[in-house]
Protein 1
Amino acid sequence: MSLKLHNSLTGQKEHFEPQNPDNVTLYVCGPTVYNYIHIGNGRSAANYDLLFRVLNALYPKVTYARNFTDVDDKINAAAKDEGVDISVFAEKYMQAYDEDMAKLGNLEPTIVPRATEHIGDIITTIEALIERGHAYAADGHVLFAVDSFDDYGKLSKRNTEDMIAGARVEVASYKKNPMDFVLWKPSSDDLPGWDSPWGRGRPGWHIECTAMIQKHLGETIDIHGGGTDLLFPHHENELAQGTCCSDHSGGYAKYWVHNAMLDIEGEKMSKSLGNFIVLRDILNEQPPELIRLALLTAHYRSNMNWSEQLLHQSRSLLDRLYTIKRDGDALITTDIDIRDTEFFAMLLDDLNTPKAFANLHELTTRFFKAESDDERAALKSEIHAIADFIGVMQMDAQAWFQGTSDDSALSADAIEALLEERVAAKEAKDFARADEIRDQLAAEGIQIKDTREGTLWSRDS
RNA sequence: GGCGCGAUGGCAGAGUGGUCAUGCAGCGGACUGCAACUCCGUGUACGCCGGUUCGAUUCCGACUCGCGCCUCCA
């Protein structure tokens, strides 16, 4: 039983072999905290949470670090716009991020390091790079010398000459090579700054990840993850720094994993198109499990399209799962090891969630067709193991179907009263009245289902 | 322009050198007082052109189209 992962470094699916199976290390680039995160960030987070869960099922210990970049020019600019203190501003969005993650059902990473708490480590890393001839100070800045690293461009598969030729940005005078990137830059008095050998300043964009990795996870990590948009320049630069800042034979990261982007109804999400979905908004509008499931149904390396149809399909599966949870109440289930399921075996193939969910669908259909309670119980046990593993079907079935009523909706008591009246009407063979009640409920968004044990109802949403 | 990725049935989306993906929607049926739920049945799918092969949606090459990155971005 082993995991296969697509490694961006080689462009191929490879067998995952950790350096130390007793402590697997995973680092994922977290948010720069200057706003609430959007649904695409949520997708990325859910995908890496799934990877974390898979690794946890395979290895006794997994150290998963996901950072907060809480010093950045975008934060400075946004805080200034709002007239809020920068650290207060960043703190607000870090807290919001934690809330969003919890609501989405993501497990907490082992470590959540913050850039501002690692300024000393960042300076140490920069000093090491200078000492080793890979970085130089100029004009209060410190820059990484791209020419000092032969493999620069290896990860994103591009060469520096082409990039310089196609560059559209002006090259700062203090750069020796136009591709050199900033490790440290000077801060004016109104900006966050820390004392350093190069004067008061703040770190550049990429260095914080490298410093935090070296500090918490070691010189060579097993898996480094992030969105494909980070491949260049962020990860390329990290790879350069991380490789050059110390002597390590294993390289900076053994496997680079990149998730694809998300579109909304076929269009790129953007504020100007008015199709921007803030994760916390949609988590308030829809059941969080629905959002989580929908985000996981696409393969992480494929572009995914967020649409009404996707939500409809995901809801359909969740309804089936909760129907099993509700109707299979009397069945005696047993604990099943997720590693013994076909579902898990499919995830081992580079997190093939579409294939895994096809398997889940088959299990639900087999459950409904099963002819014996033993068979149903076995299937329900397997379905529960899967649902628990991916973090859905965690609600009470009644709560899932009946939802929480807002003020304008019909109360549960009122619904029950109408249903009682309907039962009476049916007994009196007054089907016209019975149908009238059903139509009335339907108009209020209540669907009903007659069973031998009585009438069940659920809310649309 | 450079680098990379992709093109599968109405839609979404796996996969395979020669029998089924799967889901949603549609249609027909069973169940039901009628419904809903559930079940059963149902659809000449693999961008275009060459090549390899006994045989290609699957391998190779060209072409067309789409997407991502190259600047902040998951």
Note: The first strand of chain A starts at residue 4 and ends at 7.
Protein 2
Amino acid sequence: MRDRSPRTASYSVDVVLMTAMGNELAVLFARNSTERERWSLPWRISQSGETLDAAAARVAQEALGESPIWMEQIGAFGDGKRHPSDADVSVAHMGLVPHETASPRAGYAWFSIGDLPPLSPRQRAMIETATRTIQGRLDQAPIAFRLLPATFTLSELQQMYELLLSKRLHKASFRRALQASWLVESIDEWRSEGRGRPAQLFRYAPKKRRRPQRGVRFDFLYP
Amino acid sequence: MRDRSPRTASYSVDVVLMTAMGNELAVLFARNSTERERWSLPWRISQSGETLDAAAARVAQEALGESPIWMEQIGAFGDGKRHPSDADVSVAHMGLVPHETASPRAGYAWFSIGDLPPLSPRQRAMIETATRTIQGRLDQAPIAFRLLPATFTLSELQQMYELLLSKRLHKASFRRALQASWLVESIDEWRSEGRGRPAQLFRYAPKKRRRPQRGVRFDFLYP
DNA sequence: GCGAATTAGTCACTTTATGCGACTAAAGTC
DNA sequence: GACTTTAGTCGCATAAAGTGACTAATTCGC
């Protein structure tokens, strides 16, 4: 590997790390080193010779001590002024972690999405985009599965979908659609949650299947 | 407007302008100023004080003399080396124009997507992302309508969808779904295309309607 | 002028997907 | 052991999508 001396780059790499905390989504923030009461999304000034994905992975690693199971770039943001760095542009990534296994390092903390700290407009836009991306890609990528532990009950899975979609789902329909998708596999374990019948545990194990070939959809309203 | 002296920024703004040319998608390229046989996507080095969207609009304007009807950022690209500029990172936008009204300025030309000139890996990735974005957002945004002239026949619309999806659609199903969507409106004009019954003209005129509230979809295969 | 060819547009029937209430099952609570 | 609670399934009703066959309006060949 060649060692090029890093030079000041005019863009930052920011990461929106999300988890499902209780009944709400939560985002990970880093405490500001100078103003102790200010928080911001974890970020770093990019270094030449590092890919965007690698930079984002490193930011996440520093915050959590581990890499998120799912990570995806959500775009470049340059319009809102006043980023914690002085960068003209920030490239944002979104990362998902199950809450059970995610313990932030010192100086980092989860904030529930309904109760965020004051932020720069640019970082606020990133979080807005991340939540919209989650909703929009829920049916195209295993978002919900990445927010759950490796094994889970079908009720937990349904509750995760309900949380992410902000709407109730019908149990029988949910399970029928899930069956048809060949995405999960039951394992020979049950979990008893105090009262009620114990639930069987499942894991995410997508199987080959024909891609459902539907006709056209016109699912947009405007414009 | 404040006049700040521009400084070298380490990112470029590139635009993937697309149109439907005959039976294929086509992308707009700019002739390289030094090597006359080389082509590249239109781009510019960003200037401080200009938003990303504004920079992209300006690049498109310079290439076409007009702004595309539809434009959307498709991400930041930093991994493939050797961009025409020396930028570490390039922010790419996608723009759509109807071919009928799109005449490139001198030094620019359309290349059919199946027959592209040699490109830097990074710009190749942008085009790849743009085509995937088109397919993925076809049912969520009026992509097909933006590639057609203001008035069109339903057969033309269906052919556009067939081109973008690379598959045949059934006429009756297509029209039934379109009716249900309240996206088009017939106008009192007919077009005769030589042989066959004349077709009524329509225009894109989305009407208010309830958002179709379906249950969950598990439409992904892997991962 | 007239039948064949061509493109537009619609209909009716079948198949598939989804919504939804009601049911059975297995545990804890009192 | 009756009641509550959560898990899991069944079956019917309704909605959406796939499909071939039909009618309609025009040009073309002769």
Note: Residues 153-155, 171-172, 175, 193-200, 214-215 of chain B lie near DNA strand C (CB under 10 Å from a C1').
